[in-house]
Amino acid sequence: MTNVSLATGEQPLECALGMFHQAADRLHLDDGMREVLANSKREISVTFPVKMDDGSLRVFHGYRIHHNETRGPMKGGLRYSPEVDIDEVRALAMWMTWKCAVARLPYGGAKGGVTVDPKALSEGELERLTRRFGSEIGPFIGPERDIPAPDMGTNAKIMAWLMDTYSMNQGYSVPASFTGKPISIGGSAGRFEATGRGVFFTTQEACRHMGLNLEGATVAVQGFGNVGSVAAQLFAAAGAKVVSVSDSSEAIYDANGLKHINEIIEAKREQGCLPPEHPGDRLAREELLTLPVDILIPAALESQITGANAGDIKAKLIVEGANGPVTCAAEPILEEMGVPVIPDILANTGGVIVSYFEWVQDLQSFFWDEKEINDKLERMIKSAFKEVAAVRERDGGTFRDAAYTLAVGRVVQATQDRGIFP
Ligand code: GLU
Q: What angle do CA 136, 411, 66 make, to 5 degrees?
């Protein structure tokens, strides 16, 4: 849908590797350490059959990529999308390693996915696909090994099927095997909202840092899934003017601020689209990116702000709600224009931070209330922001440079402290 039209050098894996190698240069890493960190530790690629409702057999391809586990068990989402391919998952797995390191979570990075359009399957087909995929990757995951979570195209219900499948295959219940589960089986309060809430907290911190008043600031949010919709709601509640939101089909724009964010969320949930009757102009979804706003939140998918459209951006601040929405070709253009980008590996860590809380709660079978979760999330993500800002102050460069210096440096330190086996 998006990646095909990208120029060479702008695909997610090319960008992930480019960003890593720049950090490796800054940290003066030797060739051996570079090669270790530029590659995945383990790559699981599975092909599996699913019985369709009409009695036919369809074959699907899925992946689970383990990028690095030096700092702890691996963590990262599972994506269901027709765009999933091994290189995309490799990039996303590497980003999880850096994300967990920036947030100081005791985890390494992993990611997985199945090449499928989940909306084109019946509920029964989706469940059979999920349970079979879960069984295929079962030997490689677990609370001490690799703990998957939701990502694009997956949700709490899919995590419940996966946790049940893993538990059935083990012969006992293992709640800590997956995060982002329903509360009834060991999910955490606040997990659904966590990524959007984290985006909001990092934006608050970035505004403070830049001397930009969030109250009254205009905000455009690309993507109206659980990240974008929750962030939009929190921005509106904090007195910001959310002037535009978009889903995969279109954007709504009202220069005076969209009136009823909650109604838009409700309509999206119930009808699967932005409400046609809501006041505001209709724009093509990509037009949202170049609106004259203070804050732009790309929270849809990767490779949205590219070398081709970065020069048209008018926002004063970009906060990456999605993974990899600003490509490596776009970033230097934005830097030249003086538009700071708060990178994904800092801005969208809220999801994995609360996944970490969920895993800890499951392991100790002792649960916290939502206020405790949100307070801990705020403290953790804002402290990560401050650490990144301090490195940027010290070294210069972009927020992404600083976040990578910190993250890669922490993984290198852990690798050196553990030593190389044997
Ligand atoms: N899929 C989310 C991400 O990209 C969450 C991962 C997790 O909770 O493990 O950060």
A: 10
